[in-house]
Each structure stands twice: as C-alpha cells, then as structure tokens.
Amino acid sequence: MTEGVSIPGIWWSSTNSFEAGLLDPREPLPPNSNHDVRLGECDFDTGSPRHRVDDSETTKPKRVLPPLSVSVTGRILHNSARISTLHVFYNKTDAAIENSSYYFVLPAGWMVVKFECRTGCQKIMRSRVEREKEAQNFFHDATTSGETAGLLKQVTRNIFGAKLGNIPARTKVKMELTFIAQLEVTEDNYARLVIPMFLAPRPTSLPSGKSHYSSLTDLPQRFIIEIQLEGDLENLRVNSPSHEIRVEKLCPPRNVTSWNALVGANSQEITEKSVVTWQGGPDCLDGEFILEIENKKIDRIQAWKETHDDINIGQQALMVTFPPIVPRKNTYSTRNGELIFVTDCSGSMTDKMEILISMMTFLLKGVPLGWKFNIWRFGSRQDRLWPHSHDYSSQSLETALAYVQAALRPDLEGSDLLPALTEILSTRDPLGRTEIILITDGKLWYMDKIIQYLRRARVDDNRVRFFALGLGEDIARRDIQRIAMSGAGYADIVRTTQVNREAIAVHMMHAALSQHNNLEDIEFTSSSGTRYRGNDGTIFTTILHGLR
Questions:
Q1: Compositional bias (Basic and acidic residues) spans (predicted)?
Q2: Alpha-carbon dihedral 392, 396, 400, 403, rounded to 10 degrees
Q3: Are 99 and 213 in contact (CB under 8 A)?
C-alpha cells in the first residue's frame, strides 16, 4: 500500500486505469470492501494525507504535472450559476505523455456541461456526448494512432475523471471545464456559492515529510476567481466569510445606432452587473472559497424570459425559479414531538470533537418544553444516552450535557451510520413526529444505501424527517445535502473557524421544529390570462403544451 494525498493535477503512469479510492487512515476499511468503496463516498481532503489502496498500482511509477495557473469565471443569476474553470499545465519534459488522468469531485447541485482542451497554439479539442463504450473506443483509436485526445468520464456517483492522451513534449495544455451550479439557500435569505478545493492545489506534506511539489516553482503561480452577478442589484449584498474579495458594480456597454438612442434610453433597461474578484499567489486557497449573496427577494418565485440574439429565429426561453421551501421562524409547530441527535464518533472526527461538543451544547439548550429527546453515538457500532427518549426538563438537560462532555469521543472507529438509523427508527415514539438531526463530517460508509433507506423511511412514515449538520473544513458537503434532501429536512455547515456557531444551531432548531409542509400544487397564469395548475412534476409539461 502506498500513501499519498488528494491534490488536483495530472497524474500519469504506464497504465490506462483510473486511480484508486481514498480512505481516512484514522478509520478501518468497511467490512467486505473491495478497497475502493469509499471513492464515491467522500470529498477530497484539503490537507491531511489519505491512503491509496490500489495494491496493483504500488510498483508502477507515477508523476504529477501541477497546474501553472487556475482561473475560475462565473455568472450568477438569482440562485443559479454557470461556472467555468481553466487549468493551464505544462509538460516540461522532452517526451510526450502517453496517458494521463485528472480527477475532481463534483459538488452537490453542480452539473458538467462542457469539456474542452487546447494543446499548444493549434489543436483544440471540443467534447461531444457519446455512449460510454463508444467514447472509450474513440479515445483509444485516437491515442493509439498518435493523436492527442481527451475523455471525460463519470468514475463514481460524484467523482469525474478527465483523461488526456499523447500530450506533446514541451507543450502547454489548457483544460476548461464548465458547470451549472445550484446555489445553496440559507434560512436568512443568503444564496451561497462554494468553490471546492479541487480547483486550487496546494503543497501537502506526506507522512515522511516529503511534499508532492519538488519546489515552490512547481506550485500554481496564479489563481484568479471572477464571478459576475446579474439581476436586481439594489437588493443584493455580497460578502465572503472565507476570503477577502473586491466587488465592483459595472454598467455594460450598449450598442446604439444614434446619439438620440443613447441619451433617450430608459435607465431601467440598462442591466447593472456586479463583479466579484479574488486573486491568490502560489499558496492558493487555504480552504473552500465561499461567496454569500444576500437577496431580499430570494424567497420569491421569479420568472426570466430570454430572446434569441437573432430576432429572425424568433426563439424564446422561459425560466421559472421556485425557491426552496426554507423553514422560517414563524412556522413553528405547536405540537409536541421527539428530537433525536445522532453524533458521529468515528475516527475521522478526531479533529472535530470540539465543534461537535460545542454544537451539541447549543442544540440541547434549544429543545422546547413538552418535547422528548435522546442522543445517539455511531461509528463501527452505536450506543445512546437512554434506551428511549426522555421528556425535556432541567434535570434531563443536565444529564444530557454531562453525557456530551463525557461520552462524545472519536472512539467508535468506522463510519457505519445505517445500523444506527435502523435501531433509532425501531425505538422512536410511533405516536408522533420525530426529527432526527445528524451531526457528522459526512464521510460515511455506503452512502447510496443510506439515501435509499431515508427515502423508504419517509414513504413508510412522513412524520419522520432527517436533518444534517456538517462539521469541519474537509466536509463531504454533497452527502450532507443529500441526506437532508432525501429526508425532507435541512442541511448546514459549521467550519472549524466559524464564529457564529450559535446562530447556525438556532437555524437548525428552527428547521427541525417547523411544521411539516408538502408542496401540493402550483398555479401559473400566462400573460394572455390562461391559467395552468398542477404539481411540480406536471405543470411545466402543461405550460409548454399551452404555449405552443
């Protein structure tokens, strides 16, 4: 077994196979695993080492081609964004690189829509979508004939791999990836864009003390982020809790045919834009880049109409944005219920126990009178404070707080949540609603099975909801959000350096105590007065038929 870290860059060896899975060395392998079971279950880490567990690769030489520069450009409209990343690599050797691979974790709510490469000053490779086998055949035929070729493939549920073949010697390679991203929406009217660490490699020491980068000159010398915001800027406030940014408001140039057209234009027709920029040096990012946009109108339904640039085509597109149903403070349910806190005490939580204890203290003090509650711990096994939930009182709160201080330790080895969930649901109070709040770093075993179980549990009894609170910097953010979405709950993140932890705990409790609301139907009236009505799965088909 070899050891390494998960850094972006192009890896190449004498094989065509993708790299193996990554595991936290503080935890054991999952039972009956085939060594790569966790590849799709966790996000790449930002600093601590990970084991590479593909035994077949241990004797084969690997080299890394770090990026010279990384740039991210994007456009945000309401709570959606189009993000493009450009990596520039340089093969400074005197030999062509026959086979190379680049891996990245696709964040929650992101979709890949474009893959393009340029080698040197001439060859441009633009991607097209093909069936997997046909795409692999095209790539194989091109590379075996000596041509430079690229292949983008979904390796697992949330990890993609880009393969490049025959990178010429002494040649720069520009690789562009474009994504459509759905922004996270918080309870206090913020849309949050999170740019993950896979875009910004930084040197990370191996256990032996050696670095993947041979010298400072191997580091990316430039990293730029430029995000353009459009829409109603009067109601926007932009900030970054993670980095210092510069925000400029711009008015785009207009094409006019006369002076009268220029001076007579309605000022409301001029769309202002805000541009957010951040620029880093060789040290690049030291964590996720987070951009928060406060929009007072984000909780309203908005419609956008776009007309094709060529008016002769006469094509128009309509986008209707239905905001997430985010729980509000005034949606408290007066009915009593049961709150169950499920805490991750696996080995990967070793450096997050202080945050866990802090958040549990805040959450416990927010349980209302008349409710029942309990605390569970899970890892390779599970245990709990009481066999069944107890009524909330000053005495039970004191007992629970003492349990948090004494029992919350990273001593349960693995991250097997599923058996804990099964036992929790079998011991819940079947007579009322149950709100289950999971507190974890998200690096869980068998994530797909967990999601299937949550969905089935909701079908069996919709009085049960599941919430997720992610802790730390190297969070499996995608899986945290999947848990909340599948469990009809709410998700949030607490970073190690977070200063407003209590506010996040309050938001989580507001969500858990909110009423159970289900979207029944949607009604839409067109400009002609035609009314359409249906649920969220049928109305758009109805509207499209009506507009033909």
A1: 51-60
A2: -160
A3: no
User: Within a 10 A sphere around the Cβ of 58, how many other Cβ atoms?
Assistant: 11
CATH number of 59-292: 2.60.40
Q: Taking CA 451 as the corner, what is the angle to CA 109 and CA 40, rounded to the nearest 5 degrees?
A: 65
Burial status of residue 248 (CB atoms within 10 A of its CB: 0-12, 13-18, 19 or more): exposed
Dist. CA 289–CA 306, nearest whole Å: 30
Which two tokens mark 78?
């309401």
Tell me the domain boundaries of the chain.
59-292, 329-513
Look at residues 414, 433, 507 and name the one whose alpha carbon lies nearest to residue 469: 507
Which fold, 329-513?
Rossmann fold (3.40.50)
Angle subtended at Cα 408 by Cα 485 and Cα 450, rounded to the nearest 5 degrees: 25
Buried b (16+ CB within 10 A) or exposed e, 298-317: beeebeeeeeeeeeeeeeee
What pTM did the predictor assign? 0.66
pLDDT digits (tens, 9 = 90+) for 496-544: 878 788 989 998 998 899 877 655 556 666 666 666 565 444 444 444 4
d(CA 253, CA 270) in angstroms, rounded, equals 9
